[in-house]
Amino acid sequence: MSDESIRVMSLLDELEDLVTNASKVPFSDKTIVDGDELKSIIDDIRLSLPKDIQQARWVKDEQERILNEAKSEYDKVIVAAKRQAEYLVENDIVKKEAEKRANALVNEAESHSRYIKLRAYEYIDKMLYDMQNEMAGLANEFIQPMNEKFADIINDVNGKVNGNRQEVKDMASRLQDNVENTAADRAAVPAPDYSDDADYDGNKYQQPEFDRDGEDD
Questions:
Q1: What is the pLDDT of residue 112?
Q2: Cα–Cα distance between 28 and 31 in angstroms, integer?
Q3: Among residues 77, 104, 78, which one has the least CA distance to residue 89?
Q4: What does pTM read for this prediction?
Q5: How far apart are the C-alpha atoms of 118 and 55, rounded to whole Å?
Q6: Cα→Cα distances 179→51, 117, 184, Å
Q7: In the prediction, which pLDDT does 215 show?
Q8: Less CB within 10 Å around the terminal CB: N or C of the chain?
Q9: 151: Cβ–Cβ under 8 A, 6 or more apart, which residues?
Q10: Which residues, in sequence order, are CB contacts of 179 under 8 Å at separation 6+?
Q11: Cβ proximity of 175 and 114 under 8 Å
Q12: Which residues lie across from 24 on neighbouring strands?
């Protein structure tokens, strides 16, 4: 048995002694436990748990951070694209071309943002998968000597990790379905025809390049 498991078992025994030897409330089945001492033992147990278990909370926080960053990036790109689109549409001289370029900008911005979110989902799923493997190895090492005292903790964490992985996969699947549906809808819309416009010069206006800074290769 590792030093960590021995330490946790000792603290659990100490916690059990604290509850067992606590003063009884007269005419009641309840007991009075020293709150400060109880909190101190719980803190010691938390600090003595293996790093893999302590990392479970970090994985959840990291998941939320990545999704928030992806959403923030998505919002920024969409806002910038819409502002550019509004600016182009307001110019009466190139209104038709502006509408075409504005739609292209929005489409490219949405595609880029979906790419960022999908990469975030993949990264989170990999972290959760690695965490599951670590928890499985940890279970083999600690469940047997610690019996039910420690098994419930590991099973609970593993269940939450499974739930988080499924949630991430569902979100990615919904986003992918939305991409395919949007692409199909837009493919059905005919491109504008400027052949009858005597004032239209296809070489006069240059297509603005979308800023791809920060995109992975």
A1: 83
A2: 8
A3: 104
A4: 0.36
A5: 24
A6: 39, 12, 9
A7: 44
A8: C
A9: 139, 143
A10: 111, 114
A11: yes
A12: 31
**Cα 215–132–155 angle (5° rounding)?**
140
Give the CA distances from residue 162 to residues 122, 155, 156, 168, in Å, rounded to whole numbers and listed in that order: 15, 10, 10, 10
**Helices (H), ranges, the chain:** 3-20, 35-48, 51-90, 95-187
Q: Are 73 and 116 in contact (CB under 8 A)?
A: yes
Q: What pLDDT is attached to residue 76? A: 86
User: Can you tell me whether residue 31 is helix, strand or coil?
Assistant: strand
- Which of the 8 DSSP states describes residue 68? H
| pLDDT the model gives residue 217 | 44
Query: How many Å separate Cα 140 from the centre of its chain?
Result: 28
DSSP 124-175: HHHHHHHHHHHHHHHHHHHHHHHHHHHHHHHHHHHHHHHHHHHHHHHHHHHH
- Locus of tokens 């606590």: 22
User: CB count, 10 Å around CB of 212?
Assistant: 9
Nearest Cα to Cα of residue 204 among 98, 84, 87: 98
Rounded distance between C-alpha atoms, residue 177 and residue 18, angstroms: 56
Contact status, residue 58 vs residue 161, Cβ threshold 8 Å: no
Cβ 133 vs Cβ 56: under 8 Å: no
* Tokens 């940890």 belong to residue: 138
Look at residues 105, 113, 72 and name the one whose alpha carbon lies nearest to residue 207: 105
